[in-house]
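re the bet — no i am not wrong, look at it urself. input seq straight from the record:
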Amino acid sequence: MPEVQEILSLAKTLSKEEISLIKKAYAFAEKVHEGQKRYSGEPFFNHIHETAKNLAKYGQSGATIAAGILHDSIEDTVITASEIKEKFGDEILFLIQGVTKLGALKYKGVKRHSESLRKLFVAMSEDIRVLVIKLTDRLHNMQTLQFMPKDKQERIALETMEIYTPLAYRLGMSKLGRELEDLAFKYLDPESYEKILAILEKRVKKEKGELEKISKTIKKALAKEKIRVIKTEYRVKGLKSIDRKIKQKKEEESVHDILALRIIVPTIDDCYKTLGIVHRLWRPMPGRIKDFIAFPKTNGYQSLHTTVFSGGENLFEIQIRTEKMDYEATYGVAAHAVYKGEKKMSWIGNFFGDSYKPSDEEGPPAWVKGLSDYQKGYTNASDFVKDLKRDFFGERIFALTPNGDAIDLPVGSSPIDFAYAIHSDIGDHLSGAKINGKLSSIETELKNGDIVKIITAKKAEPTRKWLSLAKTSTARRDIKRYLGIGKKK
């Protein structure tokens, strides 16, 4: 099977048993899908092959890749669940059934949308591999969307933009998220897509030569300081991301990070030393120095960013990070368990197969665990979708406790949201707050990096006014609970 070798060659580390399982699944799927065609006229099995390739690229276990190969077997062939269980076992069957359930969910209005999200999140929290298989399946479907009928193109692209792209980004899988987002953008706003594509081509042609000169200068300067450069590369911003920034800033030329230089160095110390050298060579733009190493993004992204005046007519963004940070920035949650030499995160054990044996079970991140319970208490589908998009998919900030613990909140949150995010009892007895050491109103909008100390009092309690001030649904639900709003009489 020469075709399966392409998949195996992309995988990071597989045991003999995993390789055998993948080959067995590949031969089985190739046989059961024989003669089936896609809208494009190509063999249906091409989709199976591409999905498995994507899973291998993301370092998935043999079981996950095998489930990806078999993910359409029950839905699109005469094969039954009992046959899959007999040939491949309970684990593979569970993953296939999870993907099949997600595949049956279509974006058709708010109510159906909310039901889709509920089921999606339940599947996610049960086993995150189900979601990763579905994301890679969706990626290939988007890459071949031109062969679908027009009405389906729009629905699938909208669903991709609204649901799958934010989830990929939230898992830190930026490469996958960017691909999904740009493919959806092409169908949802083709006129803007072509316009941004032309801008991108013009800017790359105009700026790449100058960026190459900057790269050579930096390498020489770092060599003098005995800082090893693992590699330098150019990062081209996603098309939808460029479109969003241009609309926000109102003019193309104000977007300085369409093309960026990325410098990969061995250690965190080297990152900060390199930043100092860059600023010695070129004057940095005020307000454009971002330290995502000390304060990582909510999805775990770490890097140093600075925008410098090149001496010519252009401004350039330079990103500095370690090899590990670079890998994690591309592959998100996947990177933690496949990056060489690192202690693996125990919650992700099942994600990567039997080779990983956690010694202490930490459980999935809080935001992942919370998703399956998020819909509880909602009777109105429209409210559920609106709150969910704001709380989980909107822009986020980090506000810090005095001990340095980061509280992840949506933009626009106040000390009320902060207090309830810590614990409902703290929220219920909130009487005041200190922000960065100063007494502040509990209505104050928090900013990224604010240090917040919550002041409580036994007699303090929520008021109805807090409902209009709270940004998170968690805070509003707890306030309603305390005030007895919505209780059955």
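see?? DSSP finds 22 helices and ten strands in the chain. told u. also The radius of gyration is 25 Å. so pay up
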